[in-house]
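User: Could you write out the 3D structure of this protein bound to adenine? I've included everything you need below.
Assistant: Certainly. Input first, then the structure.
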Amino acid sequence: MKIKILTLFKEMFIPFLETSIIKRAILNRLVEVEVIDLRQYSFDKHHHVDDTPYGGGKGMVIKVDIVKEAIDSNISSKTKVLLTSPRGKTYDQKKAIELSNEEEILIICGHYEGFDERVLNYVDEEISIGDYVLTGGELAAMVIADSIIRLQKNVLSEGSYEDDSFQTGLLEYPQFTRPYDFLGNKVPDVLVNGNHEEIRKYRLYESLKITYLRRPDLLLNYKFNDEEKKMLERIKKETLQNN
Ligand code: ADE
């Protein structure tokens, strides 16, 4: 898969692309990432990319002609074009999985007061990473790219993301490592006894419980099997007793 990122701030991507799992994925050619400077598509000698807004007001607006030129120069019929924007649909793991199956995506990083609205004619989707406003779309583009890259084949070791929060539809169960006893706070016995069936049940129960307590909205669309239905009943009873 190839991910192209169109930005005015290429340098922001250097540490992201040169660290840890993302760096290794690129070196091993499991994904290709190209960061492209929007300014190179400017038509004037001062490399301006923005102009004042029609109707007045503060700030500058990125020009549609320049963005269209940048898009046209970097896409083929296979490319999915995304624009990061707080006005977009909220990004989630389902969208990450969907995008991870694309052959090529181009992420345009929003900036300043925004883009000329007509840019949307050349974009497939606007994506927001959450209900808050960033100074620019670069961090959003990194979030999107990161979540897609880790889903590419062989980037993580086998089975690493099957239990991810959201991948299963549930939040992830708690994990522990040594020391067994930290300041009197011990690791649950079930994890130490080596009974794999008991460990599986414990983890499923804890996943259901943390999801029920923190993100009950995720359970609305969750397909429960019989074991999970019974566990949820137990969790509900225990929660009532404890409150
Ligand atoms: N640009 C500014 N805020 C953003 C957000 N929440 N998501 C995506 N792009 C943005």
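The longest strand covers residues 79-90.
User: Perfect, thank you.
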